[in-house]
Amino acid sequence: MVRLITHNLLACHAKGCTSNNFPLQLKDVQLEQREAEFNPDFLRRFMPKLDWGALVDTARQLGDDSLPLEQPEMFDDDFLRKLHHVLLEVSVEEGAMVCPNCSHIYPISNGIPNMLLAENEIG
Amino acid sequence: MSRPELVAPPEIYYGDTEASKYTQNTRIQQIQAEMTYRAMELLNIPEGETAFLLDIGCGSGLSGEILDEEGHIWAGVDVSPSMLEIALEREVEGDLFLQDIGQGFGFRPGSFDGAISISVLQWLLNAETSHPTSSPPHRLTRFFTTLHSALKNPSRAILQFYPTSDDQIQLITSIAQKAGFGGGIVVDYPNSKKARKVFLCLFVGGGGGQQVPQGLADEGGDERVQFERRRDRETKRKKSAKSKHTQDKDWVLKKKDLYRKRGKEGVPRDSKYTARTRKPVF
Ligand SMILES: C[S@@+](CC[C@H](N)C(=O)[O-])C[C@H]1O[C@@H](n2cnc3c(N)ncnc32)[C@H](O)[C@@H]1O
Ligand SMILES: [Zn+2]
Question: Per the record, where are the segments of Basic and acidic residues compositional bias (chain B) (predicted)?
């Protein structure tokens, strides 16, 4: 499974691809939902690591528009539960991630993205 | 018997047959669990805190299962599709990636609160092709530089591995240092041929008073201390699990059920230590 929590941290690592290489664009995805334990402390601590714009965009592309465009200043319970769902309870099982810069395709099958590079793509 | 990393590349060596033999072997399960607990102790995540961790060379999830058990959220990378497939079957909770760590990571800076790697690093010491990007120093450099950037400041990475010589240790530590890491090597049970374990303990962010921990001594005394500490941790965890219980009762029940269905290996392991009769410390 690729949950949005990991997708939000993942940039392209192909040789020379160092700018505009995030977020990887999700294509032809099949999603799965599964419950996860709600942990507000973890989420609060995780907030600074997130690229908020990328998260909201990606979630919306996947049909979830529960998150506000602007990152709120106060993290109330209602907000944290929505964030929890988007980050940890939705996962991509099939499809691909495409680099917006070099167009490298990372296929996802059975929930596992193939991040292997060809020899000429290794940095 | 030849060491696995000298036999074939990892994704070939850990094919379907070896991957399932490896995962089902109760002796291996126990050793991997033991080393993962020790790595977690060295990782030093604050008591009771849920961390976001990276399991490097996660394989079939023997190490990752313990991260689940300890309540952490994690991602795992491995180059063997057969090992990852078994991890899926075992329903570990981490996000899995098919990735060659010698090619480096693409994780954004500061992504992880820590990283562990159990019995993997020795695989990076052997070149598989003659291409320049596949020389061990090149691969180790890619690995350590991109790992360093993927970790938050301050944090640690604990990598247990099987070096065959001091030169190998030297090569690995010097490349890790150049990549920006502090830290060093911890050797547990240095005088026991069987129990001896080497942990590379890497620190991101100097200054913060991070000191390389002590290795465990060969006498039973120190071993007991380790288990005491784990026992303390487990009691605390059980307590906090109880308070969660009232908040998210359904979730916990479901989880317990899932563990039961899986015939969780952690259960006998837990009881082995929790029920242990102990000699007095002094
Ligand atoms: C002994 S197993 C350990 C697996 C797991 N950490 C455990 O404790 O059971 C070693 C693992 O390292 C993986 N490995 C070896 N070289 C690798 C590489 N270059 N990139 C990613 N994984 C690698 C192998 O595929 C194998 O799953
Ligand atoms: Zn790219």
Answer: 222-235, 245-256, 264-273
Residue-level pLDDT, tens digit, chain A, 123 residues? 899 999 999 999 999 999 999 999 999 999 999 999 999 999 999 999 999 999 999 999 999 999 999 999 999 999 999 999 999 999 999 999 999 999 999 999 999 999 999 999 999
Q: What is the rounded end-to-end Cα distance, in angstroms, of chain A?
A: 26
Contacts of residue B87, defined as CB under 8 A and 6 or more positions apart, other chains included, come to B58, B59, B60, B61, B64, B76, B78, B94, B96
Q: Nearest CA to B55 among B133, B145, B160, B169? A: B160
Find the residues whose C-beta lies inside 6 A of ligand 1: B 10, 14, 32, 57-59, 62-63, 77-80, 83, 100-102, 118-120, 123-124
- Domain ranges (residues) in chain A: 2-121
Domains and CATH numbers, chain B: 4-219 (3.40.50.150)
pTM of the model: 0.87
Residues in chain A: 123
Fold designation for A2-121: N-terminal domain of TfIIb (2.20.25)
- From B50, B146, B252, residue closest to A39, measured CB to CB: B50
3-state secondary structure of B153: strand
Beta bridge partner(s), residue B188: B197
- Here the ipTM equals 0.97
